[in-house]
Specification:
Elements lengths: L23 E7 L14 H12 L4 E6 L2 H14 L6 E5 L7 H4 L2 E5 L5 E6 L4 H4 L4 H4 L1 H9 L2 E4 L1 E2 L2 E2 L8 E2 L4 E5 H4 L13 H12 L3 E5 L16 E5 L2 E6 L8 H12 L10 E6 L4 E3 L2 E3 L7 E2 L4 E5 L4 H12 L5 E5 L14 E5 L6 E2 L5 E2 L6
Parallel strand pairs: 1-2, 2-3, 5-6, 10-11, 13-14, 18-19
Antiparallel strand pairs: 1-20, 4-5, 7-8, 9-10, 12-13, 15-16, 17-18, 21-22
Length: 378
């Protein structure tokens, strides 16, 4: 008789949140439909999504959330016109409020022993503690767990579900997590978990994401209506390396908060006590539409199996940002995606994607070569 597992939270059962560059089975995306996310600019957005899917499916499945058959039919027409092999795409009809899958979608944790498998760490979502239309989005992790027939761990602490958006955290897959005080600790603005302090939040991360070390940055970037998501600011690109945004213009709104974060990083330590290598990532010139500042940042890139997708903004810094990412991701191509229209929705590539880890070594097709296994990490 098999021994019954002891434990009811992910870390007790050897689950952890993998790094984004580790092998995926699929990428989840919510096909766009909410016109208010891109007021006056919705028409090109589905085509941008189509281009993103075209590049993702070179190395993994795209799992696309749609509201209905009619919504699915619209997505299929665009993907077919772009020339995408629809055998690489799976549609799940489940209604959503919006399309920012990183923040409300399933956060997948993985373990390798006693067997390789994934589960979902089910956190709450409340529309970034700002918007009223979130109740459909909040149910997506439960839907995904049913469809995949995988285990789900409900992050309930002191009788209430802990609220967490995927864009507010980033991990190196070895035990260290990055987040910001502005997003998770501000007691007055967009409060996700009232009464939770630094130690309580870190304890939730350790229990449900399998991390052992939490690093706190300060504020996020200007124009970010999430109030400080780390995926517009600082990202792991390897077990010991982070890209951290820097602004060189002292008159710019991002200058002081980004300088302060650079000072913080100097004192940070990884899970083994070593200092992280910190690589500067430039900021584009400010982007505004109708007088509203939007969160244009190269840090909102997405690492898929066969490509790294980077938002670009018709800015001279585009070339520097792409070159920087090509230096740190040498095992897959780095491709820019025009994001001036996309960022009007107050998010770009990382915000709209969510990775599902592979449960075993798989063969994936490189965008520039034959099928070959990708190495995990660097």
């Amino acid at each position: 008789m098999a021994r019954k597992e002891v434990g009811h939270i992910p870390s007790e059962l050897n689950y952890r949140l993998p790094a984004e560059w580790e092998l995926h089975e699929a990428t989840w995306i919510g096909w766009p439909h909410n016109l208010t996310d891109w007021p006056g600019k919705f028409a090109p957005i589905p085509w941008v999504y189509g281009e993103i899917v075209r590049l993702i499916v070179r190395g993994e499945i795209a799992r696309i959330l749609v509201n209905s058959k009619a919504h699915e039919d619209k997505a299929r027409r665009i993907l077919k016109r772009i020339g995408i092999d629809l055998k690489r795409v799976e549609f799940f009809r489940f209604p959503t409020d919006r399309g920012w899958t990183r923040d409300f979608g399933p956060i997948f944790v993985k373990r390798d022993m006693p067997r390789s498998e994934v589960a979902i760490a089910r956190f709450g979502f409340t529309g970034w503690a700002k918007y009223p239309n979130w109740r459909k989005d909040c149910r997506v992790p439960e839907f995904a767990a049913r469809k995949l027939r995988c285990r789900m761990f409900d992050a309930v602490v002191d009788g209430r579900r802990f609220v967490l958006e995927g864009g507010s955290i980033d991990v190196n897959g070895r035990g260290t997590l990055l987040t910001t005080e502005e997003c998770l600790l501000d007691p007055n603005v967009q409060i996700r978990n009232p009464g939770f302090g630094r130690e309580q939040i870190a304890a939730v991360f350790k229990q449900y994401l399998g991390v052992t070390n939490v690093l706190w940055l300060g504020k996020g970037i200007a124009g970010d209506d999430t109030h400080g998501h780390v995926d517009d600011l600082c990202r792991f690109v390897g077990p010991r390396t982070v890209l951290l945004c820097i602004e060189k213009n002292p008159a710019e709104a991002n200058y002081a908060p980004l300088q302060e974060n650079w000072e913080r990083v100097k004192d940070m330590r990884l899970e083994d006590g070593s200092k992280p290598e910190v690589v500067p990532l430039p900021m584009p010139s400010p982007v505004a539409l109708d007088g509203q500042r939007v969160p244009a940042s190269y840090a909102n890139f997405y690492v898929a199996n066969a490509v790294v997708l980077v938002p670009t903004f018709n800015d001279p810094q585009d070339y520097i940002a792409l070159g920087t990412l090509r230096e740190v991701f040498r095992d897959r191509p780095v491709i820019g995606i025009h994001a001036v229209d996309l960022v009007w929705g107050l998010g770009t590539l990382h915000c709209l994607t969510q990775q599902q880890p592979a449960v075993k070594t798989q063969q994936v097709k490189n965008a520039t070569g034959p099928s070959a296994p990708y190495r995990l990490g660097r």
